[in-house]
Every structure is written in structure tokens, then in C-alpha cells.
Design goal:
Elements lengths: L1 H26 L5 E3 L2 E3 L4 E6 L2 E6 L2 H8 L8 E11 L6 E12 L4 E13 L6 E14 L5 E14 L5 E15 L2 E13 L13 E11 L1
Antiparallel strand pairs: 1-2, 2-3, 3-4, 5-6, 5-12, 6-7, 7-8, 8-9, 9-10, 10-11, 11-12
Length: about 220
Amino acid sequence: MNQTKLILASVSLMLAGAFTAHAQADATTTSTTTTDNTAVTPATTSTTTTDKTTTTETTPISAYRAAHEFGPEKGDWEFTLGGSGGSNKALNNSLGGANVTLGYYVCNTLEVSVRQSANYTNGTAGGGAVYDGSFFAGIDQHFDFGRLRPFVGVNIGRLYGDSTNDTWAAGIEGGLKVYVKAQTFLFALANYAWTFDSSNNASDNFNDGAFLWSVGVGFNF
């Protein structure tokens, strides 16, 4: 019951964000103001008519966007690089990992992505480092607050490696992106994931999941 509520809550937030973005897009209109002999068109093009001389100045869309907007638009791609790690006080038992994500925005706030992760554990038993990996596909709904972009989403994928039996996994994720430039951001991601062998026990193993954390940098292009 708890897992059903969490999943429904995540999906509801994603749908609400998508509908809000669509409504904002529909509400945006184009207007032109004319005073005497001067006409100014919206966005990045202005036209001035004085007597018989007409001068048109156009600012490139990319320059306008970089100066006034943060974050992606529909059709943009996204690449992130993240990592995590830890060690005991003696520095002889460590763990760490790295992940890369490639995403695509189907609208200004809804992103579909794939994420590859690699992790290692270096214990004290003398057996050397142990390596594990994962590959996930996910969908995230972002909420536009200018430089700040909180997001929630769901994912599904595979776990594999030296200490992990190859198995399916699903997760609920959320996080925050902070834009330091128009198309460059820092991010923090938390993912609650659980494993399952088949669709029959996908919900049964929900309470046996674990939290995964990652921080890093990302770019839109």
C-alpha cells in the first residue's frame, strides 16, 4: 500500500508539472506595439521606421537565451557526470562510484534519459576491489523556478557485477538542479531503488530497497 501511494504521488507530480508547462505555453502570446512611426516586434527582432528609412536589428536566439534564460527547452539534450564515495577512518576500506546520464527533453520540463553507473568497494579482506554496475532508463518531471529546477521521476533498469546477481531494479527518484550558467548546472540526486526477478514480485520487494545518492555537474545542448 505504501509503495502504491509513493508511486502514485510521483506520477501525479509529473503530470501536474507537464500540464502546468503546457498551460504556460498556451498562455504566451505575441504582441506588437506601434507608436507614431515606430514598431517593435517581440522576442529578438526590432524594426524601426523613420521617414523613408527602415532599419532591422536581429539578435541571435542563442545569445538572447544565454542572457535571459536558464535551463533547457523542448528538443534539447542533457549530459551529466556525477559521483559518490566514502571510506573508514583508517582509509583501508573505501567505496565509490561514478555515473553518466544522457537525456532528451520532450517538452521544456519533461525529460527521458538513460543512466550508466559504475561502483567499487575496496575491503580489508585482501580480495581486492569489487566492481558493480547498473543501467537505468528513467523519466523526470522538472519544475521551473528560474535557476532552481527541482524534479521527481521514476526509473527501471538492470544491476550487475562481482557482488550482485544480475537482476532487474526499479526506483523513485528526486533531486535539484541549480543553474550556474544558462546551460550549465550542479545537481543532487536521491534514488530509492529495489530489486526484483520478475514482474510478479516487483511490488513485494519495495520495502527491501535502498537509497542511492549522487552529486555532479550537467550541461544542456
